[in-house]
């Protein structure tokens, strides 16, 4: 479980620092970010790995340090579902993050955040 926590911490820190090189490594090739709403737009938005990295690269996402509070980790074999609370000075994310063991390396395959302004 520590490896899962390490992978999630790397994912969060890479977003906070807008480190796309780390995101390329830590995100699974089939990664999806699914969220309800996108800034002022309503609806469900699904972003692929490439979309997500581009949002980081263009500074639409990321750039603010966040604390991580792990609420639960449920691991079955090569899949782990993790509930976290991420908090920056601007936003709070209540996220379900799904990780998979990809040839001995835990990677993020899904991030489903609920986002609220502070």
What does this structure look like?
- The chain has 118 residues and is an alpha+beta fold.
- The chain has a single domain, classed as Nuclear Transport Factor 2, Chain: A (Roll).
- 26% of the residues lie in helices and 54% in strands.
- It has helices at residues 2-16, 20-26, 49-57; strands spanning 27-38, 41-48, 67-76, 79-87, 91-102, 105-117.
- Strands 2-1-6-5-4-3 form a 6-stranded mixed beta sheet.
- The longest helix is centred in the first third of the chain and has 15 residues, at 2-16.
- It is globular, with a radius of gyration of 13 Å.
- The termini are far apart.
- The mean pLDDT is 96.
Structural class: alpha+beta
- Average pLDDT for all residues: 96
**Arrangement of strands in the largest sheet:** 2-1-6-5-4-3
Proportion of beta-strand residues = over 45%
Number of strands: 6
Count of helix runs: 3
> What string, H for helix and E for strand, traces the elements in order?
HHEEHEEEE
What's the number of domains? 1
Q: What form results from the Cα inertia axes?
A: globular
Low-confidence parts: none
Name of the CATH first level: Alpha Beta
C-alpha-based Rg, rounded: 13 Å
Shape-level CATH architecture: Roll
**Helix fraction bin:** 25-40%
Measured distance between first and last alpha carbons: 30 Å
The main β sheet shows up as:
6 strands, mixed
CATH topology: Nuclear Transport Factor 2, Chain: A
């Amino acid at each position: 479980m520590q490896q899962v926590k390490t992978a999630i911490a790397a994912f969060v820190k890479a977003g906070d620092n807008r480190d796309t090189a780390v995101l390329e490594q830590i995100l699974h090739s089939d990664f999806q970010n699914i969220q309800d709403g996108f800034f002022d737009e309503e609806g469900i938005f699904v972003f692929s790995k490439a979309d997500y990295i581009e949002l980081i690269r263009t500074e639409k996402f990321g750039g603010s340090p966040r604390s991580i509070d792990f609420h639960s980790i449920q691991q079955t074999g090569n899949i782990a579902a993790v509930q976290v609370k991420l908090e920056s000075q601007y936003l709070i994310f209540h996220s379900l993050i799904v990780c998979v063991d990809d040839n001995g390396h835990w990677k993020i395959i899904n991030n489903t955040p609920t986002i609220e302004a502070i």
